[in-house]
Amino acid sequence: MHLRRIGLKDLSFIKLWMADKTISALYQQWTRDSSDDGIVNLIKSSIADTSELHLIIASHDDECMGIVSLFNIENGSAELAIYVKPKARHKGYAWFGMEEITKKAFNELGLESVYWCVSRENSRAVRFYDKHNYNEIHDVPQIVLKRHSGTKNLKWYSIFKDDELSLPERVCGCKVIQIKTIPTADAGELSFFEGTKEIPFSIKRIYYISKVPEGVRRGFHAHKELKQLLFCPYGRIQLVLENRRGREEIELSDPSIGVIIEECTWREMLWLQKDSVLCVAASDFYDIGDYIRNYDEFKKHIASTTT
Ligand code: T46
């Protein structure tokens, strides 16, 4: 997955997108002139307009999967809008687009906050934002509300720069660790950890998952007893964790970052980049009886056990 500037080659995607009734009010201007010339003019003027940024969310082979935009870039903030085409939904493109454009907003455009809204009737979108723990906001300035006066019953969200930049100490209660890493001048880095020192168990098994296509999800299970350190030495993988503390996610894209799972935790892994590698150091040998692969059974298990 990657983001790239919108260009004339995206004409057919834009036509498909314009026909979708659920697109954000901010994108309405794009629907005014749906002739090829009209769209070409819009693409050109949007590239020149510094108060807006439109980026295509593309697959590894550059197929256009959606668009993510910042509108009204002013006074340290911007309004976000996103559209992902139906066939690309549930494959991580929306989450990837949101994460990448907010990084750009904070790191490249120097913004302090990004906000957006969605109709509460659009339950698919509300579920998506809530599931990913985006913060709901209530004190939306009048000038912003006015831009959406035609749409009723909106739910507003925001991300602040400070929310983004620091690496969390824990995700769903699982420790996020910095794996010791030694750089070598012009010859890369070497990372290492030792069982019972940097990680709280001795390692009985190492396994790794490779050659996974982009947009694929694996996991969907928990372990009753097994403890593991998960890390991604190459690529980008989203790790979603759920246990008695709730449901949270983290992106593994830095070879020196790992997550230690010690308690019974449901996990889902989404490959954001083709051929990313997930490595796991485990506290025990493979035991099929330690897996809980049924979600309802997992919920019952965590409700009935105490740690
Ligand atoms: C986990 C996540 C992060 C073995 O025979 N030996 C092994 O050591 C492992 C890990 C798996 N297998 C077999 C069992 C299945 O027939 O390999 C096959 C694929 O395993 P699974 O579908 O469980 O793969 P993932 O990616 O869903 O989950 C794996 C681990 O199994 C799991 O413990 O925490 O990675």
What does this structure look like?
This protein is an alpha+beta fold and 307 residues long. It folds into 2 domains: 2-160, Aminopeptidase (3-Layer(aba) Sandwich); 170-305, Sandwich (Jelly Rolls). It has 7 helices and 20 strands. The strands form 4 sheets. It has a 7-stranded mixed β-sheet. A 6-stranded antiparallel β-sheet has the order 8-9-17-14-19-12, with no helix packed on it. A 5-stranded antiparallel β-sheet has the order 16-15-18-13-20. The two termini are 39 Å apart. The structure holds dTDP-4-keto-6-deoxyglucose (T46). The site of dTDP-4-keto-6-deoxyglucose (T46) has 10 residues, from strand 12, strand 13 and strand 14.
Shape: globular
Can you say what the CATH homologous superfamily of the largest domain is? Gcn5-related N-acetyltransferase (GNAT)
- In CATH, the architecture of the largest domain is 3-Layer(aba) Sandwich
Q: Number of domains in the coordinates?
A: 2
Number of helical regions: 7
Structural class: alpha+beta
Q: What is the N-to-C succession of helices and strands?
A: EHHEEEHEHEHEHEEEEEEEEEEEEEH
CATH topology of the largest domain: Aminopeptidase
| Average of the residue pLDDT scores | 91
Bound ligand species: dTDP-4-keto-6-deoxyglucose
Q: Could you list some keywords that capture this structure?
A:
7 helices; 6-stranded antiparallel β-sheet; binds dTDP-4-keto-6-deoxyglucose; Jelly Rolls; 307 residues; single chain; Aminopeptidase; alpha+beta; 7-stranded mixed β-sheet
Compact summary:
It is built from 7 helices and 20 strands. It has helices spanning 11-18, 36-48, 93-108, 123-131, 142-146, 161-165, 295-304; strands at residues 2-5, 53-58, 64-74, 77-84, 113-119, 135-137, 154-160, 170-171, 174-178, 180-183, 189-192, 205-209, 217-223, 228-234, 237-243, 246-252, 257-261, 266-271, 277-282, 291-292.
